[in-house]
Queue: 4 jobs
Job 1
Amino acid sequence: MTDSALRELADDPSSRKRFFKMLGGAGAVSAATVFLAACGGDDDEAASDSPPPASAVDNNKSDLEILNYALTLEFLEADFYAQVIDSGMVKDPKVVTIAKKFGSTEQEHVDALTATIKKLGGKPVAAPKSNFGPTFDKGLMATLEAAADVENLGAAAYLGQAGSIKNKEVLAAALAIHTVEARHAAALNELVGRGFGGGGGLKGSLPDGPFAKPMDMKAVLAAVKPFLA
């Protein structure tokens, strides 16, 4: 698409500069700050709490759909870690620390996406009702494997939507989250002993090729369906 964010980034050197600057700064500030800065730009007036005009909402419609899709996944991930911790099934203090850290990160993603959707004039989706009980009933290893699967799905989902995002700053912030999801996935894949195995890019602790495997919205939603009530 000639008007896509990826095309703008490719054609505009100043856009590329902002893009890499944003990615570089994502680790130094919260995900919420990155998203709000991305959508607000450098104009103080544009960063006000006033809702955007109707025309801006229309222009942002497709991005809002993608952001709400991402928010649904982040809701599930945050809820998953919260329930794992509350269940008490994890006894290893190091694993508990990892679960809490990952859960906190996913909640920051939820907060950032929610704020961004509102800033663009949209309405955030409600948190879906989860159903992790059957997974928990299978024990700790099955639960950790499910965590790895969900994180891999998250990374693949963000990558699958990258070419459709129109706002280049939102794209940069989304890719910053994609990177975090991928690193979560790699850590969990290693934790459950998946080694170098492939399997569509969702199983191995290391990439099974030079390029990450994206997944479209339909495939991702089908994959997380068992976790929905």
Note: The chain is about 65% helix and 0% strand.
Job 2
Amino acid sequence: MNKTTYAVLFSIYALFASIGLVQADEGLTPIAKTSDQWRFEVTPYLWAPGINSTLNYKDQYVKTADLNANTIISNLKSGAMIAGEAHYGNWGVLADVVSATLQKTSNTSVTPQAPYTYQIATKATLQQTILTGAATYNFLNNEQANLDGLLGVRWIGVTATLNLAVNGVSPPLNGESKTMSTVDPIVGFKGRYRLADSTWYVPFYADIGSGGGTTNVTWQAMLGIGKTIDKGIDVSLIYRGLYYDMDSTKTNGQGLLQKTTFQGPQLSATFSF
């Protein structure tokens, strides 16, 4: 990711933080207390990851795809990113949705036999959805920290489609599409650590899973800085990483992704009620 992207993300976060600085911090705390009442959180966010992936095509590993966040954002056709939690006492549930469709078109000139030259148009589409759901249990809750254990599942679904069109050839060549999905149990923890009795805090999250049939191992981790800017409103800037190591032999060589890493900054706003 280049300096421009970092500058934009940090500028947005600085704007949110400055709003909080002009408000009185008295009575505000980033650590929610457990109680025998329902408590809900909704967190829309923007995650701008780079993607590094080894692909499998017809039983053979092919070259690694390495896409930075700028490339992904420029080719983003649609997307949605949101998380939510519900708590009652020490127990809770959480859900997280990342959905994105990337599309890129290009034109290439080829000359199979002079003087004939053809224009080949390609349109590559990647549809990807990651769903995480888990039950949580609170192990620690005091003025300085909150810690939840979690047990759940993560589902990932990816569809890659390539369409070709050659001028002078009608109809267009049929596109090729490949789809994969897997569900994996996960176990982990999440929470916050309050900084020096202030409204600033360190959010953290980690999980690991396997045993979904096609996955050797998957893990996800987050760490960053956040601030409570008003009662029931937090903002945070974190670095988030997600990793998948899949086994093509478990899918008869039809696995699309093999070793894939998503990692990059995430800007979030959390609304509690």
Note: Residues 20-24, 60-64 have pLDDT under 50 and may be disordered.
Job 3
Amino acid sequence: MNEHEDEVALMDYLSIIWKRKWLIVIPTLFLVIAVGIISFLLPPKWEIDALIQPSKFLVQTEGGRFEEIVFVDPKQMVGQINEATYDNLIATELNLDVREFPKLKAENLRDTNLVRVSTKEKDAEKAKLILHSLFNHLKRQLDKKADIEIKGVDSDIKSKEIEKLRIEGEIKGNKNKLDIVKQRKKDIERETNDIRKRTEALEKEQRLSLKKENRSESESLAMLLYSNEIQQSLQYYSELNELLSSKKIEEENINLEIENKEERINQIENEIDNLNEKKGRIDYTQLIKEPTSSLYPVSPKKKLNVLIAGILCLMVFTMLVFFLEYLEKQK
């Protein structure tokens, strides 16, 4: 029973549509042709896009890999572009009417720091100039932070070089001091040898005098003088040895201080190399892909417009047919 009623209802609907078919077909055909003509007459538009990489620097992780760190979040760039922040600046620079300025669309490519900027325009060359101008404005803004980072690195390098020059001056002074100590040490060694030889000669003369059995008073006095002189020479010899030991210690300390300073210079040179490497890892904003036009126009989409118009018209006029049928039955 229900199936029979459904069949009857369906036949009624089809009968209504067939009864007023020209009210559906003619307006639909007319509007579809109109949409087709309008789509054909509309000027074609191309899509022009570019890829921008914001200024960044590479940071080495604990695992030895390098990770990109951008100075400005690409999502922030995308928001500014989509909010038309630069439209007035670009329009003024290129002498364009801001009311006819094309819509700029930006997006952050997934899992990258790249920003894709695109626009649709019938004049492809004009759109390319707009994207170039946008890139220049972005570059000036973004590169300021990269410049600040580079200036900071340059300042660190300069301070390291100043410290290196200071330490090199100290090493030069220490080497001059070392030369003086070495020369003084040689003089002491030479004087020590002279005292030792003189003492040995006095001791030899004293031994010869002691072998004499009958000594005169003058010889006895000479013996006493020999003894005093030998004692003084030995005392002075001991003092020279102590002074020589202190000079050797002073020489070792100066050498050790020079080695420490030279090691510090090596450390500073390594730090300067690391800073230069860090500076080399800083990249300014780059235009990864030049503004490029699509191969074919992206609008108007004639076939799609005609298809959508046909479907919508069929739906609208079919509903209108049922509505008219309803009004007729009510009368």
Note: The first helix runs from residue 2 to 19.
Job 4
Amino acid sequence: MPSCLTPLKEVIKAEAHRLGFELVGVTAPYPPPHIDFFESWLRAGRQGEMAYLATERARQRRADPRRILPECRSILVLGMRYPAAQSPARDQQSLPPAAGGPAQRSSSNQTLGRVASYAWGDDYHVVLVDRLRSLVDFIEAQVGHPIPNRWYTDIGPILERDLAQRAGLGWIGKNTCLINPRRGSYFLLAEVLLGIDLDPDPPFLPDLCGTCTRCLEACPTQCILPDRTLDARRCISYLTIELKGSISPDLRQQMGSWVFGCDVCQEVCPWNQRFATLDGDPAFAPRQDLPAPDLTRELSLTPQEFNLRFMGSPVKRAKRRGYLRNVAVALGNLGDESAVPALARALKKDPEPLVRSHSAWALGRIGVETARQALAEAARTEIDAEVLSEINAALGEK
């Protein structure tokens, strides 16, 4: 048991810091203040294909944490830092090519993609859950008996940022991220619902975004809305991860070279430019080639090679077909002629129509004669209607 000079909450916070959680706060299990706002967002359909957000059970539990854990008396909210993206959002790889016409060709044989920095290392779902389990074990050892508990990171029916703001960790910025005034927004959030009483921390009340609108202006697809929500259906993170089918042609050009997630709205945030650091928890240290993968090589990954390359990585969530779809789009946007052979092979041989169709689009974007030849050759043998439609569109035919 903690001594009378060290309250239990402070002992728990010290252990959480030792486990790598830089942000730690406590709040009470009251309904989140923005639940009505979230319900309006769902009614507007801005969740896209993320149907799990709108199930009746999830909505009821999200509206009241005690529906998740009836014995809940306190909620511990934690944040673990991951590396800040090193490339500025104005980097040519993160901006869309000029609207209209083929992508501008690169003279430097550049075919490198971009991956959101939270996914450079190990899968946070695994990393955080192991540490949350250790933290709960520690708390139970301190009180001397088992206590009711539930923990989540990202996957639970919880408004994480609402709880984090109420626990004093920061404010919800215009880009919808939780921003800490001393450390920025490159944090992964987690929550532990506890069946014990802990004094809540004061909420973070100031809105320190002020009149700044850099994130809204920089968003390549203009998915960030003025009411501090975003239209997920246009968000590059949604398009590259959550969307399982074809990406709308009118959004592909805006995706730049992002192949998994997006960091643009965080890169331009003054609070990150001032306070975010390039390092994070060692578990999220970049794997070899992951921050900027060679896309021509990625496009040739077999299912076995994909599984091996991304074992224990968040990127595996996109699955091979989704990831290679994204890779093809990025190659089309980069516009490097050296990518034509890889795209032509994918168009001719990849077993997934989704990959073939987006490879056809990319060849059309690059637009050189060898790309058109590959498209014309594929048109003679392709039997999938959607792929054929993409080929014809890329060739300028109806």
Note: The two ends are 74 Å apart (CA to CA).
